[in-house]
Fold this sequence. Notes:
Elements: H1 19-27, H2 32-39, H3 43-51, E1 60-62, E2 68-70, E3 89-90, E4 96-100, E5 103-108, E6 113-116, E7 123-126, H4 151-155, E8 162-170, E9 173-179, E10 186-191, E11 198-201, E12 209-215, E13 218-223, E14 227-235, E15 242-252
Amino acid sequence: MAEATPPAGQPPSWSEILWDLAGMVLRLLPACADRARFAAVCPQWRAAARQLHLPPPLPLLALPDGTFYSLPYGKPFRFPGFGCVGYKGAAFGSWLVFPRDNGCFLVDPFAGATVKLPALSSVRLRPPNAADKYVKYQEHVTPNGKRYVTWLDIRGSKHVPTLNKLIVCSPNLVAAVVGKCTGHISQILMCQPGASSWSVRAYDPCYGFEDMAFYQGKLYALADDEKLLVINISQRSKHRRPTGLSNWTGHQG
Length: 253
């Protein structure tokens, strides 16, 4: 009697692709749209796209009408479920900033996530008793005799503070440049996503901040007098919650 021939083995599934090979493929896909299509194939490929260390993709161009362009392609597209119309700006990574009454909120169209931020009228002073010791800006004088403004002066003015720049430094920390709607005086506020209030160092001088960037655990804020302020961000290692500014130094450019 002839022996039964064992059935031929099933060919390996594309979902079983080695991560090293997946990384090689993803590195050949610099466009955000192509990487999204790769991740949509199956859960295994989606995990590879999220967890592999890849070079940054080419940037997306976002238009005020809610359409996007994925370089190097010329055809516009939209994110399903998110209008993305009327965004104020980008907040680092894939977060978009949308204005709302007395504040803003964040939307990540890739993850379909929305994060609420505190109203600009809700700011916690550091130290908490700063308002009790408040003196007007005419009495704040630097060693070289120059007078300066603090957040207490901005808070006490008739103008409603406006949001000029916002950066998502980490999942636990958001930094914003907030100032008067008139003039160039502004200050850096910080909060945790979902918190009820911002936090500010009440006695620090305000500056005319032109731009701000986050890099390797530090905020770099460029003022209109060409001064670069470097702010070290400290976090508790256990809970990874921001404790505020651990250092504040200025470098004259």
